[in-house]
Predict the structure.
Amino acid sequence: MSTKSHSLPIYQPLEMRLVMSGVQAMRRPRPIYRTLFRISICNTGAHPVRLLGRKWTLRERNGNTRIIEASKVFNDYPTLAPGAVFSCSGCHEFDSPPVSMELRLFGNDELGTPFISAPLHFPRSCFQS
Protein backbone atom coordinates (compact mmCIF):
# COMPACT_ATOMS: atom_id res chain seq x y z
CA MET A 1 0.00 0.00 0.00
CA SER A 2 1.56 3.27 -1.03
CA THR A 3 1.20 5.94 1.59
CA LYS A 4 1.67 9.29 -0.01
CA SER A 5 0.38 10.77 3.24
CA HIS A 6 1.28 14.30 2.25
CA SER A 7 -1.47 14.20 -0.37
CA LEU A 8 -4.17 12.50 1.71
CA PRO A 9 -6.53 14.51 3.90
CA ILE A 10 -6.36 13.79 7.62
CA TYR A 11 -9.62 12.39 8.96
CA GLN A 12 -9.88 14.17 12.30
CA PRO A 13 -12.89 12.28 13.76
CA LEU A 14 -10.89 9.03 13.85
CA GLU A 15 -9.55 8.92 17.39
CA MET A 16 -6.93 6.39 18.46
CA ARG A 17 -6.13 5.81 22.11
CA LEU A 18 -3.40 3.76 23.64
CA VAL A 19 -5.07 1.59 26.26
CA MET A 20 -1.99 -0.30 27.44
CA SER A 21 1.65 -0.64 26.52
CA GLY A 22 4.77 -2.16 27.96
CA VAL A 23 8.18 -3.53 27.05
CA GLN A 24 9.51 -7.01 27.77
CA ALA A 25 13.25 -7.61 27.60
CA MET A 26 13.78 -11.20 26.48
CA ARG A 27 17.11 -12.97 26.87
CA ARG A 28 17.96 -15.16 23.93
CA PRO A 29 21.19 -15.61 21.99
CA ARG A 30 20.75 -11.89 21.42
CA PRO A 31 18.46 -9.64 23.50
CA ILE A 32 15.05 -8.83 22.05
CA TYR A 33 12.80 -6.05 23.26
CA ARG A 34 9.10 -6.69 22.67
CA THR A 35 6.54 -3.91 22.98
CA LEU A 36 3.03 -5.09 23.80
CA PHE A 37 0.09 -2.76 23.30
CA ARG A 38 -3.68 -2.44 23.10
CA ILE A 39 -5.25 0.30 21.00
CA SER A 40 -8.82 1.57 20.80
CA ILE A 41 -9.98 3.26 17.57
CA CYS A 42 -13.20 5.29 17.65
CA ASN A 43 -15.07 7.00 14.82
CA THR A 44 -16.36 10.19 16.45
CA GLY A 45 -17.56 11.53 13.09
CA ALA A 46 -21.04 11.61 11.58
CA HIS A 47 -20.28 9.16 8.75
CA PRO A 48 -19.00 5.57 8.51
CA VAL A 49 -15.40 4.90 7.53
CA ARG A 50 -13.56 1.77 6.42
CA LEU A 51 -9.99 1.16 7.56
CA LEU A 52 -7.77 -0.40 4.92
CA GLY A 53 -4.16 -0.24 6.12
CA ARG A 54 -1.58 0.98 8.56
CA LYS A 55 1.84 2.55 8.74
CA TRP A 56 4.16 2.11 11.71
CA THR A 57 7.29 4.16 12.33
CA LEU A 58 9.47 2.37 14.89
CA ARG A 59 12.70 3.82 16.31
CA GLU A 60 15.32 2.11 18.45
CA ARG A 61 17.97 3.46 20.81
CA ASN A 62 20.74 2.22 18.47
CA GLY A 63 19.48 4.62 15.76
CA ASN A 64 17.61 2.10 13.61
CA THR A 65 14.26 3.21 12.19
CA ARG A 66 11.77 0.84 10.56
CA ILE A 67 8.76 1.83 8.51
CA ILE A 68 6.15 -0.90 8.22
CA GLU A 69 3.25 -0.43 5.81
CA ALA A 70 0.59 -3.04 5.29
CA SER A 71 -2.93 -3.56 4.18
CA LYS A 72 -5.45 -4.52 6.85
CA VAL A 73 -5.67 -3.13 10.34
CA PHE A 74 -4.76 -5.90 12.75
CA ASN A 75 -5.89 -8.61 10.27
CA ASP A 76 -9.18 -6.89 9.42
CA TYR A 77 -10.74 -4.20 7.23
CA PRO A 78 -13.05 -2.78 9.90
CA THR A 79 -15.93 -0.52 8.98
CA LEU A 80 -16.69 1.90 11.79
CA ALA A 81 -20.14 3.43 11.98
CA PRO A 82 -20.40 6.76 13.80
CA GLY A 83 -19.62 6.11 17.46
CA ALA A 84 -18.26 2.60 16.81
CA VAL A 85 -15.06 1.41 18.47
CA PHE A 86 -12.55 -1.12 17.15
CA SER A 87 -10.03 -2.46 19.67
CA CYS A 88 -6.93 -4.47 18.89
CA SER A 89 -3.77 -5.76 20.50
CA GLY A 90 -0.34 -6.37 19.06
CA CYS A 91 3.39 -6.31 19.56
CA HIS A 92 6.60 -5.27 17.85
CA GLU A 93 10.10 -6.61 18.45
CA PHE A 94 13.25 -4.50 18.55
CA ASP A 95 16.98 -5.33 18.54
CA SER A 96 17.73 -2.52 20.99
CA PRO A 97 15.42 -0.72 23.41
CA PRO A 98 12.62 1.13 21.59
CA VAL A 99 12.50 4.92 21.89
CA SER A 100 9.41 5.79 19.83
CA MET A 101 6.47 4.26 18.00
CA GLU A 102 3.96 6.01 15.77
CA LEU A 103 0.87 4.58 14.07
CA ARG A 104 -1.18 6.02 11.22
CA LEU A 105 -4.22 4.39 9.65
CA PHE A 106 -5.48 4.65 6.08
CA GLY A 107 -9.01 4.22 4.89
CA ASN A 108 -11.96 5.49 2.87
CA ASP A 109 -14.95 7.53 3.92
CA GLU A 110 -18.50 6.61 2.89
CA LEU A 111 -17.97 8.21 -0.54
CA GLY A 112 -14.79 6.20 -1.15
CA THR A 113 -12.51 9.20 -0.60
CA PRO A 114 -9.16 8.06 0.85
CA PHE A 115 -7.84 9.56 4.09
CA ILE A 116 -5.09 9.13 6.65
CA SER A 117 -5.48 9.38 10.41
CA ALA A 118 -3.60 11.79 12.61
CA PRO A 119 -0.63 9.91 14.11
CA LEU A 120 -0.88 8.04 17.39
CA HIS A 121 2.41 8.67 19.20
CA PHE A 122 3.22 6.25 21.99
CA PRO A 123 4.39 8.29 24.99
CA ARG A 124 8.05 7.94 25.96
CA SER A 125 6.98 6.48 29.31
CA CYS A 126 5.88 3.32 27.42
CA PHE A 127 9.51 2.45 26.78
CA GLN A 128 10.99 2.99 30.24
CA SER A 129 11.76 -0.17 32.14
Q: What stands out?
A: Confidence is low (pLDDT under 50) at residues 1-5. The CA atoms of residues 49 and 112 lie 9 Å apart. The two ends are 34 Å apart (CA to CA). The beta strands are 14-26, 32-43, 49-60, 65-71, 79-80, 85-94, 98-109, 114-116, 120-121.
